[in-house]
Amino acid sequence: MNDTQIKTSSSSTKPRNPPIGSTGLVGWLRKNLFSSLSNATITILGLYFLGLLIIHLVEWAILNAQLSGDTRFACKGAGACWAWIDQRFGQFLFGFYPETERWRPALAFVLLIPALAPWLFDKLPAQRYLRPCSIAYPFIATILLVGGFGLPEVPSDKFGGFMLNLIVGLSGIVLSLPVGVVLALGRRSELPLVRWFCIFFIEFVRGVPLITLLFVSNILLPIFLPPEANLDAVVRVIVMVTAFASAYMAEVIRGGLQAIPSGQYEAAQALGLNYFQSMRHIILPQALRISIPGIVNTFIGLFKDTTLVIVIGLFDILGIANAMVANPDWLGLSTETYVFVSLFFFSICFAMSRYSMRLERRLSTTLPRETK
Amino acid sequence: MSDTDKNIKDPNILIEIKGLNKWFGSFHVLRDISFSVKKGEKIVICGPSGSGKSTLIRCINRLEEHQEGEIFVDGLELTGNLKNIEAVRQEVGMVFQSFNLFPHLSVLENCALSPIWVKNTPKEKAEQLAMHYLEKVKIPEQADKYPGQLSGGQQQRVAIARSLCMEPKIMLFDEPTSALDPEMIKEVLDVMVDLADSGMTMLVVTHEMGFASQVADRVVFMDDGEIIESGTPNQFFENPKSDRLKLFLSQILSH
């Protein structure tokens, strides 16, 4: 008996193509949608109901919709009544910002694009100069919105609509990430006082509803602070929303920090990097990358929480919507109004989510990169 | 650096350890360790697992704190003084069992990082330096890859190059081949032999007895946190004196 089998190079099996129909579009359909009779039935039924839904939606929102009219009584069809948009669009965007000055927030919004682009994308032309330039944006935007330098002043209680959501949301997003990083590092610090302070801040702020923080900022802070230190209502909201989001952010980032093996800290130390250098170059880039899904989750939550400003008397886009639904001229149009408002939030939140997925792919050193 | 920091008589002694004791909690992990390392000496430390050999070399660049005794590295005493610790770490390179490359940086960036930030070397010069040492470890063609795309042996060679980029006076190796597949051990050991031939002062924790007998000036045997025996490779392997060393050698050389 001879049990030994040896393959010589001439008798080696040649690589073959996979069987036809197991790869490509046909293969995908077969595997995922039509793998068995019951799966095929479910697929076809699902497509049928999806089609019905889309047809009804399009009929309601577009085909049978009414686009013009002065009051809701102009709307007679079975479809949606969008007539109010024509009259109220400005209010939904800018709240009670004076109509003649509305070009200012609009310009601030347009300028936001070149200010954010160098931080969101790399490999832009002149990248190196764009980032320092964009630091000027918050000041330019503040002057545009509030006034000064020849522009008439607009008090912040006139701010409203989606503009207010964007101001509070973006400020909160931009500020809560660095504050969250500091809190997360502080919570892991070896200095007891720093650690205790961070733990107290995180646990307290996270353990209290945002609404109560906003009330506190509105009612209690003015009592404790001297009257001349009259903090602006919008600034107070930004401070509170930032504090709230950064407590969540700190815990998300702490999770990322804990996932970094101790060998990374040791290698950085052994190479002579000090604490800040090793955090900046070794630990945080890795921890933040792991934390991207959680960070974006917090951002999205924060952005939607900006609608809570209504409890302290500011009219964001949802507040304007509520007011309009209660207006006798447009009474009962809640479906249309809230669908409209949802689209604003959805488009921003969906964009954040897509961007974060792109970022994860780009930063990955194991998955194939988009560029390079 | 004040004169009190420089209180070693022999300038050829790079590492001086006197009466070193260390505890992990209540566990006495290093007991009364004293030895010194001369410039250019190659020392292999071996012993059963848990004998404290890794802890000992981790004390030399203060990855571990010691509670009793004195450690001088190139004339600087290791205490809580952060300045001394940072100065010592620039003189002492370390290679780990699990490589510990930075996965988010390319091979070249891994090597150039600490010259740039710790020694303020201009980026271009640091990259030239990195390429120089990547060539020394025979891996320059991988400079733009990421650590995750390399084999274990290649990663360990990059880790050696990364340490060398700081141009240290002393290199510590903490079981550099223990995490490698057998066919990759040789490529790493070859690089270490080259490094030894170039005159580097080396402390190597390893079980590679072939490397020890080929390269070491002195082999140190540790057990239960103590140095049991040390000597030239010849004495050490041919004529072990203590029973514990005899038992250890019989266990690792028997198959």
Summarize the structure.
Chain A has helices at about 25-30, 35-65, 85-95, 105-120, 125-135, 135-145, 160-185, 190-205, 210-225, 235-260, 260-270, 275-305, 315-325, 335-365; one strand at about 315.
Textual characterization of the structure:
The complex is a heterodimer of chains A (372) and B (255). In chain A, helix 3 packs across helix 7 (161-187) and helix 7 (161-187) crosses helix 10 (233-258). Chain A has 14 helices and one strand; from the N terminus they run ααααααααααααβαα. Chain A is globular, with a radius of gyration of 28 Å. Chain A is mainly α. Chain A has helices at residues 24-32, 37-63, 83-94, 103-120, 127-134, 137-146, 161-187, 192-206, 210-224, 233-258, 262-270, 275-305, 317-325, 334-363; one strand at residues 315-316. With 255 residues, chain B is an alpha/beta fold. Chain B contains nine helices and ten strands. Chain B has helices spanning 53-60, 82-91, 107-118, 123-136, 152-164, 182-197, 209-215, 233-238, 243-253, and strands at 13-24, 27-38, 42-46, 68-73, 76-77, 92-95, 170-174, 201-205, 218-223, 226-231. In chain B, the strands form two sheets. In chain B, strands 6-7-8-3-9-10 form a six-stranded mixed sheet, with helices on both faces. Chain B has a four-stranded antiparallel sheet with strand order 2-1-4-5, with helices on one face. The longest helix of chain B has 16 residues, at 182-197. Chain B starts with 12 loop residues before the first strand and ends with a helix. In chain B, 46% of the residues are buried. The chains are: A mainly alpha (372), B alpha/beta (255). The A-B interface holds A 261, 263-264, 266-274, 277, 281-282, 285-286, 289, 363, 365-366 and B 61, 63, 82, 86, 89-90, 92-94, 96, 98, 100-104, 113-114, 117-118, 146-149, 159, 162-163, 166.
